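Hey everyone, long-time lurker, first post.

I ran two proteins through the pipeline my lab uses and got sequence/structure pairs for each. Pasting them in order. The first:
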Amino acid sequence: MIGKTALSTVSLTGIALAATLLAAPAAPAAASAAPAASAASAVNPLPVTSCGTTISGDAYLPHDLACAGGTGVTVTDSGTLDLRGHRLIGPGRSAAGFGTSVGVELATPQEAAAVRVRNGTLTGWDTAVQMFDTGPVRADRLVVKHGRVGFDAIGGAVTIVHSRLVDLGSGVTSLFGAVTVRRSAVSGSGQGVNVSQARATVEHSLIRGNQNGVNCGEAACVVTDSALLSNEFAVFLYNFGSVQMHDDVVAGNTTGVLASDAGNTDVADISTTRFVRNGTGVRIDPTAGVTIQDSRFAHNEVGVYAQTSTDPIFDFHARPTLLRNVFRRNGDGVLITDPQSSSTLGGNRAFWNRGWGLFVAGQVTDLGGNVARHNGNPAQCYGVTCTTG
């Protein structure tokens, strides 16, 4: 976990956002404050008073509703399901596996307008919201917790705003779809945002205390203006998954970004991001190309690490590009040990690291302007020319 001392070293929008989300998380509004979704819904919204209800259009939850299993609410057409500050309660996590109980199941046509689920709590469901090749869903001011999967989307688009996803096997899982998480918090889960052959965008959000914060396999992910704190892997890339990261804070994770199983492709573009007190800030496996620029690394065991390939079949090697970054008070600033790697460095600065400032084995394109001072290894740099005076 990140303590106040650690976080005090970082002053960035993402940390301010994290503090805001932790101190005042998204909470359902009082029922009296819930606005009418439309003139039609204001005239005759459907009250959902029993489990297993099917709705087509606008509906609301007049009180807490606890279900022994099955599906809480099935939605067959566009509209708003307004929980009005109440809880839709499932039977708890099932030992039988995924999908045994479903809080809200979408059965809308693909061409339908978005279904809105808002202003309440979904708790204790194997799958809180489930969709299979349906129209889009927008979750607004929800708390989803204590279940196996928060949102399970096969096809379709999921947008989650001003919400909290807590204590789930997976906060959001998407296959062949699109996920947007905006101004929300995903915490204490196995997989925070988990996408495969899909797209994911995480904006102005807090991803904290998950095994994998953002998990991208054969997927294109974008993470901006967010705080990724105390995860085992803040961002995990595999099977050609890629990420663009800008203006984020990555702190207190075992590994900030792991780029692996990339098939010799460029998979990560990271800029203006701070990596603080991680085990490894960015780990580049031998199959991956990664670009990091205008970012800061402080108090990590290793800022950027690329290891030697041990694959007996494929002759893949890491391809890091490091431009105008600052490495300060890490164990090693940059540690690229693969003798067959191909690296490009320019304008980096490394100060007060306990070991190497910049250690770059293999083929190096040196763009100049690298500076290293006061690092523990007297040589300061290896494989790249550094100004040390």
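...and the second, right after it:
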Amino acid sequence: MMSSVNLDDNDDTYASGQEPNEENSAISHAVITWKADSRVFSINYSINGGFKCLTRDTDMNIIKGPARADRENVAEKNVFSVSEKPSNKMRLPIAMMPSGSLLAGFQVLTEEGKEDKHEIILFEKNGLRHGQIELPSFSGHLPIVKKLRFNSDTTFLAALIDFKGDRTVDNSIPPQQIIILHRSNYHWFIKRSIDLVENSEIVDFKWMQNKKNQMMIVDQSANFSFYDFQFVYQTSSDLSYRDFDNLSYTVNIDYTKALITPFKKVVIPPPLAEKEIQLIEIPQTVCFYKNNLFLVFKSKVGFLNCETGDLQYLDFEYKGIAKSALFVESDSLSDGISGVLIVDTCVHNKKKDTLIELMLKEVDGKLSILKTHHQTSNKVYSW
């Protein structure tokens, strides 16, 4: 059986500032996304000077709700919706939550005399806006979203982002990467970024159906990579409650911000926190040592004093992807060692894992590295 309808439902509306012409009326770009049960789908397409997104069921009926004029546009009587008229702010990629409750898209806001805003927008099936996620700049470059994907239980939203410019000419342009967002208390946190080594471009990515937190990535070199994401909750205290000076700090990572709260002093729900510490990049993993926090970045290791907010970078660099970190504190180690930081790392598309051990000594709140040890295994771990 085949059904055929007019994609734009014979609508003659145009984006703001656009005049009717033959070139605008032709559809040149379109993306389709489906609800998990395949009963509803949405099409985002370019027409009449902008992008428009309509959601239909399998009987080709358009899903629309009661039109409500947005407060900012009452004078123009425009509806704050991506299904009522084409939007010249919206761009191509969209993704529907598997439940079908919301869709995600990408828009660029330009205003004379101000810096552009790049946002991931959320809207209902009838097109009415439901919120937005403002994307930060990466090393001074605003990201352009190429693809969006929700995992099967909508725990994560992944976005493939790229940047304008030629990297062979300007090496300050960040590499193409995938950012992982997680929702908590109606706020979306940027939890992780993935970029491939050896200048390999990402061709496509997809969340697995049988493992909801596993992602598969395909690069230009025809390599398949699998990433497993897990929630790790840590506090600075243990279950013994012997250390009364320990304030039970917890940390929430949001892009290059570490949101820190001492639970023994105050309980603040995310995205709020007692302290907000600005970092150089998204940390790959973290672990606590007393009232201090180790932050493992892509090539460096940071040591953050949660009470003062002072951040120290250890005199050490590595290459690879940090999967997890653990600090083992001991008073019985020789040579005045305060403890050992163990970092489990791997290299993209290499069947090897490396355990990095940093033997550390603390003097006046500062850490110094006394010894380092690397142990490489040929075992292939899931990460």
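Reply from user beta_strand_b:
Welcome! Quick read of the second one: Residues 176 and 372 are 32 Å apart (CA to CA). The chain has one helix and 25 strands.
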